[in-house]
Write a structure and sequence with these properties.
The protein is α/β, with parallel strands linked by helices. It has helices spanning about 10-25, 35-50, 90-100, 140-150, 165-170, 205-215, 260-275, 290-310, 320-325, 335-355, 380-385, 390, 425-435, 445-455; strands spanning about 30, 60-65, 100-105, 120, 125, 155-160, 175, 200, 245-250, 280, 360-365, 400-405, 410-420.
Length: about 450
Amino acid sequence: MLLREDDSLPAWDAAHGRYAALEDKIHAVITWIDASRDEAVALDALAARGERRGPLHGMLVGLKDNIATAGVRTTAGASFMSDNVPEQDATVVRLLRASGAIVMAKQNMAELAWGATTQNATYGSCRNPWDLDRIPGGSSGGSGASLAAGYCEASLGTDTGASVRIPAALNGVVGLRPSVGSISTNGVFPASYTQDAVGPMARSAIDAAQLTEALLRFDPDEPYSIRSTGLPATALIGDPLRGLRTGVTEQFFFDDLDAGVAKVIEVFLAWLAAQGVVRSSVGDFGQDGAHEHWTRIVQCEAAMLHRKRLESRPADFSPDVFGRISAGLGVPGTELARSLDWRERYRQRLDGVLDDLDVIVSPVVPVDVPLVGGYDSREQTAALGRITYPWALHAGPTMSLPIGFHPVSGNPVGISLTAPRFCEAILFKIAAAYQQDTDWHQRWPALVAATARTQ
C-alpha cells in the first residue's frame, strides 16, 4: 500500500520519489538498490499482460541491513562491515524473489541489532516520520520508518528482543515476531542464534499476512529451522471473531502505563468485546523474570559470536554496543545454564496459559514515542523493552498492530497480540478484521502526505 496522488506513476518511481525527497531528514536507508527499477519495469510489463510471477508480484520490499543480498552490501549497521558484499542471498530473500517481490532497499538499523532507538553513529540517526524529533524504535528502525515514509510496501526486520515489534508500534505499522524457527534466519547476520527471528512488516495486515505466508518455509540449511504445523497465514482472514478467547495481561504489563497509551488500548479492547470476543484475565506466568534471563542468554551468544573482535579490535564497536556485548564474556557458565533452563520452563508455563486462550493482549511499549536522546541507547532501550521480553522468550508468534494515536502527542500506538505456537493465522484474522473497521493504517504522516502532493 503506497501513497500515490497520481496512479499513473509507477509504484517504484513513487517510492523512490519520496525517498529522494525525505531521506536527508529520516535516514531510514543504508543502501537504495537502483537496479531494482529494471526489475519493477519488467514485472509491470508482465502484469499488463495478465501474468504474475507469484503471490507477491511487484511488491516493493525493503530489508533490514543484516539480511544478506547477493552483490549488494550488507553492513548489519556496523562500521567494520561497511564493505561487506555477500555472494549469496539469504533464504528469505530467495523466497521473496521467487514470490515476485522486488527488493529495493537495505534499511538502517541499530549497530549489530543492539538497541531500540536506531541512532546509528555510522549510517545516520534514523528519525520517526510522524515526528522527526522522535526515534523510530529499533533495532529495525529503518524498516519501520521506511514504511511510515512510503518508501516501500513491506519490510523485513529481525526481532531478538522486540526489534520488529517496537518499531512497528512507534511507526504505526504491522510487525510480526513469528513462531521460533518458522522463518529461516539462514543468511541473516546474527545477534543471538537462539533468539533471532525474521519479522515481516507492512502497513496493511493483509500485506503482512501474504508476506508471512511466502516465508513460512522449512529450511534444511538452517539448524534452527522447524516446519510449521499451523494454517497458512491468510487462511482465517475474513472469518468472524465471535467466540475467540482473549486473555488480558493485567499484571506487570500494565504497570506504569502511560495514560494516553492506556486510553487507546481501552478503545481497542472495547472493539474486541463488540465483536463477541470473550475476555478473561491472565495472571502471573513468570513474566517479570524474562528480562534477566533474556539478557543473559543474548549477551552470552553475542559475546561468543564477537569474542575475537571484542578482544582484539574493541574500537570497531561503539562504546554503547561494546559495553553491552562484552558483558557476556564475564557470565559464569552455571548462570547461563540456569537461564537456558528457565527459558524452557517458562515456555512450558506460557504454553499452559495459552491452552485455554486464542490470543493474549498487552501493550507493546508502556510509553509514548520517545524523543531522540543521543547515541547511547541503554536507558531508552530498557524503557521500551521492559514488557516485550516476555514475548521474545515465547516459542509462538507475537504481533504489533497499530490501533490509533496518542491523544496528547499524536504519535502512533500499537497493541501486542500473542498466540500459541504456529498460530500466526489467528493474529492476522484479528488484525485484518480490525483494519477493515478502522482507518488508522491508512493515515500518513503530514510530512509524507505533503511530499506526495508535490510529486
